[in-house]
Each structure stands twice: as structure tokens, then as C-alpha cells.
Amino acid sequence: MYLRHGTTHDVLACWLGVDRSTITRAIGEVRPLLAERGCTVAPGLRTLADVVEHLGSSGRRAILDATEIRVRRPAQGTAGRDRFTSGKSKQNAVKAMVLTDAEGRLLFCGEPRPGSCPDITQARTSGLVDLLGTGPWVEILADAGYQGLGGQTGGRIVTPPHRKFRKSPPPWYEEMHARDKHAHSSRRIRVEHGIAYLKNWRILARHHGRRENLPETIQAVAAVVSHQQSTTRPFARAV
Questions:
Q1: Digit-coded pLDDT (tens) for 113-129
Q2: What are the φ/ψ torsions at residue 114 (nearest 5 degrees)?
Q3: Range(s) of the domain holding residue 73
Q4: Taking the CB of residue 25, how many other CB atoms lie within 10 A of it?
Q5: Is 23 inside any structural domain?
Q6: pTM for the structure as a whole
Q7: Which of 76, 146, 195, 198 has the lowest tally of Cβ within 10 angstroms?
């Protein structure tokens, strides 16, 4: 109830007929257990290295993206206060890397970084680039924010095509570029569905609590969503 609806501890205590401190203690005990569980990929597979190995052995495609979660602005005078300002939304946020399969099932949700952290930097610091450079062949679709990683991973990360003509492109090229870009977007749209399953949990729509609890909260929600997808949620077959 707390993660799904973002209900305050006071309201939960009133609903369940217990003291507020009981709710706070229960959430503090259960949340790290869910976060430690991780996403359900296959029995015994939880880490990013496990995910890459699983994709390589099964020959399945993955989709990479990042999602922003709005947070409260750090107090005046706090060191690194501006790091949480997102260059995209111009709001205070943290950013988490998300990896799904071709059908939108959640495979991995990384540690959140300040909103000013570029997507490509987050992919590098998470260890994904190193794992792809030395691991099995895996095709991962990504948006333009990850351009440049294809060369570093031997073509394993596929991004939208670059524009070859910056000025006065011929009409046939504009049409071809738009068609190729649309085709790439259509192949990776499922990752937006996977992110939507996370953001539908109100606690992640906008986080009003302490920022130090947000990493555990994100991982806890990802663990529950991933478990639900692997057991009950039907998915349409990817084209």
C-alpha cells in the first residue's frame, strides 16, 4: 500500500489500527528486503552481469533507457545542490537506468544518479559497457542519448542512425532518415511500457520522502513489478 499508492505513514496507521511508529518500522524492515531481492529474470539470476549472460545465452534482444523521478530540492547551502537539476526537464530529479526485454518485461533497474548525469555516463558507470565489451553477443536498442556506445561495445548497443548531411540534405535522404529513425523508435517503444509499469507506482511518480531512501524504494518497486510480470501479467508477443 505504501509503495503502490504513496500513502503516508499516518494514514496507513489509521487504516490498519496500529501506531504510526509500527508502520514506519515495518516499512523500514521490508523495503530493504524487497530491494535486495532484485528483478526476476530467471531462477538465481539477479545482477546486471546475470542479465547480460542470460540475454546472450537465450539470443533475446534488450532495450535500454533511463527514467527520471522528481525529488525535493536540496536545502540551500547543501554541497552539490545543482547536481539534481535535470538538463532535460529542468526540475530536481534523480535518474535510473532501466533494461527491459523486447516485450517490455523489466530485467534490470540500476542505482539512481543525480538528474544532471547523462544517460551515456550512467551506462558506463553501471558496468554495462564493460560487460558488453567482454561478454556474449547481445543486441540492445537505445535512443540517441547513448550514441557512441555502439563502437565501444562492438555494435551491441544499437542507436538511431546519424545524420550524414547537416546542411541542405537531398530530399531522398530526409525521407530515408525519417523512415529509419521511425523504424528504430518502433522497435524500442516497449521500454517505455516497462518504465510506465514502474512509474504507475505512486511512490515513484514524485518522491516526497528522504532522498537517501529513494535507491531502496526504486529497487523495491522494481522487484515487485518484475515478480508480477514473471508470474501473472500476460504480454503480447513482440513483432
A1: 988 899 999 999 999 99
A2: -55, 150
A3: 38-231
A4: 12
A5: no
A6: 0.84
A7: 76
